[in-house]
């Protein structure tokens, strides 16, 4: 799977307009625990730690192609609890969008269990769609070609080499920690394929109680479209392909992470979080606002409110509704 693959020659010969170009990549910064790379046959390659720009710019910037309306919108982000990809393209070749992260975990257990092995189960569960977007065949709009998804759980490669192939950022622990789903490549005519993602990647890992360990995650999407069917620069929550991180442990054991993972399967605390979000005793300060938005970005402080980025306690993490609830509570209102 290669984001720089061209369309099949028969499609080009049939008069399908595509925009081409090239750009050099950028290597991962030292110490980064999140990394996103957007690439393809258009003039701008984008890289980011944690999140791409939002709203999305048009990543096609060369005037020789923008004059034809060539457009790529892309959004992606990651937190300790999830990774999200979203993109839409018009009059360009297919897109390659790789979103990877790593976190450091520690398992705790009953008294006397420190230093003993325990089996933990990790799984990535999806929400969202793959789709095939529009193309021009002569003067006719059609839905053409393919979209692919690869998902991995495994070891993290922090290489800063700009030539590093991003689909190898995470090496799966074992075959069951890798999965893929696709829409086959063909001309679908006037019917747009939109396919819900059902791929779950999971497996057991044997780790020592009390000893920190790393786990890397990656979702790589390649092709005509993912999530953002309407092609907006500001996709909503339902217009992403999102993968959530789950951990299951034996009774009496629990797991925490360096970056602040919270259990998406646990019921949220009742009601909203506190206006003293950072837990320093001062209510509704700039420091609380800063801590809240830092938590939304994936890093919650150790003294932060237990709601974390799910401030309104509705089970959906880091949404506009959480932000609205936060500022209502900050202003002295109800949840």
Outline the structure in words.
With 335 residues, this protein is mostly beta strands. It folds into 2 domains: 249 residues, no CATH class; 69 residues, no CATH class. The protein is 9% helix and 38% strand. The chain has 4 helices and 17 strands. Strands 1, 2, 5, 8, 9, 10, 11, 14 and 17 form a 9-stranded antiparallel beta sheet that branches. Strands 3, 4, 6, 13, 15 and 16 form a 6-stranded antiparallel beta sheet that branches. A two-stranded antiparallel sheet has the order 7-12. The radius of gyration is 21 Å and the shape is globular. The relative contact order is 0.17.
Percent helix range: under 10%
**Share of residues in strands:** 35-45%
Rounded to the nearest angstrom, the radius of gyration is 21 Å
Unreliable parts: 1-17, 20-25
Question: What is the H/E order?
Answer: HEEHEEEEEEEEEEEEEEEHH
Structural class by SSE content: mainly beta
Number of helices: 4
CA-based shape: globular
Question: How would you sum up the major sheet?
Answer: 9 strands, antiparallel
| Number of self-contained structural domains | 2
Euclidean distance between termini CA atoms: 46 Å
Instruction: Return the average pLDDT rounded to an integer.
Output: 88
Q: State the total count of DSSP E strands.
A: 17
């Amino acid at each position: 799977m290669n984001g720089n693959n061209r369309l099949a020659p028969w499609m080009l010969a049939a008069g399908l307009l595509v925009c081409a170009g090239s750009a050099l990549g950028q290597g991962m910064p030292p110490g980064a625990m999140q990394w996103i790379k957007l690439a393809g046959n258009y003039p701008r390659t984008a890289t980011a730690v944690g999140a791409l720009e939002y709203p999305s710019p048009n990543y096609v910037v060369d005037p020789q192609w923008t004059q034809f309306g060539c457009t790529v919108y892309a959004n992606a982000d990651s937190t300790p609890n999830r990774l999200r990809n979203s993109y839409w393209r018009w009059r360009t070749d297919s897109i390659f969008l790789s979103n990877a992260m790593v976190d450091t975990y520690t398992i705790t257990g009953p008294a006397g269990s420190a230093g003993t092995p325990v089996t933990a189960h990790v799984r990535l569960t999806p929400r969202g769609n793959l789709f095939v977007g529009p193309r021009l065949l002569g003067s006719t709009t059609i839905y053409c070609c393919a979209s692919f998804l690869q998902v991995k759980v495994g070891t993290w490669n922090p290489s800063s080499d700009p030539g590093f192939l991003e689909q190898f950022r995470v090496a799966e622990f074992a075959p069951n920690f890798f999965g893929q789903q696709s829409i086959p490549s063909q001309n679908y005519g006037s019917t747009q394929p939109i396919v819900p993602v059902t791929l779950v990647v999971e497996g057991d890992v044997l780790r020592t109680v009390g000893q920190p360990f790393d786990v890397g995650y990656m979702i790589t999407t390649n092709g005509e479209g993912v999530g953002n069917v309407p092609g907006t620069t500001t996709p909503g929550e339902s217009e992403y392909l999102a993968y959530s991180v789950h951990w299951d442990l034996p009774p009496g054991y629990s797991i925490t992470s360096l970056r602040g993972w919270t259990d998406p399967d646990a019921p949220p605390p009742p009601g909203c979080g506190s206006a003293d979000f950072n837990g320093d005793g001062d209510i509704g300060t700039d420091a609380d606002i800063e801590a809240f938005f830092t938590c939304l970005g994936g890093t919650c402080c150790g003294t932060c409110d237990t709601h974390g980025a799910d401030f309104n306690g509705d089970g959906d993490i880091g949404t506009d509704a959480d932000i609205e609830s936060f500022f209502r509570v900050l202003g002295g209102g109800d949840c």
